[in-house]
Design a protein that fits this description.
By secondary structure, the protein is mainly α.
Length: 114
């Protein structure tokens, strides 16, 4: 039995920062920060976060500007800051809440589709 949308007036997923099959900025930032917890060179971050070189430059500049990430020239590695660790904690809480929301939404929709 197919699930039906309850609220036809809900904004499309892409307007809420969620689009099927695509990562959003918050998730990409979290992947970059997570990969830098122990310190990581640019290429390691690039591969772990599955980004192009241009994307990596864009995101690392933004994360550095927000003091979530720093580049250590001596070790040639990116390292997460305390503020970056706080971001990861908050992101995980958001991810958990989102998962709970979607599980409960699916259960409610299944109840309506009986």
């Amino acid at each position: 039995m197919a699930l039906k949308e309850v609220n036809a007036n809900a904004p499309p997923l892409h307007e809420m920062g969620e689009s099927p099959g695509r990562r959003n900025f918050l998730g990409i930032a979290a992947q970059i920060l997570e990969s830098c917890r122990q310190g990581a060179r640019r290429t390691h971050v690039l591969y772990r976060a599955n980004l192009s070189f241009q994307q990596l430059n864009k995101y690392t500049k933004l994360l550095e500007a927000q003091n979530l990430l720093r580049y250590d020239a001596d070790s040639r590695k990116y390292k997460i800051t305390e503020w970056g660790l706080t971001y990861l904690v908050e992101y995980r809480e958001l991810e958990s809440a989102s998962w709970t929301y979607f599980v409960k939404k699916r259960a409610l929709l299944e109840m309506l589709n009986r």
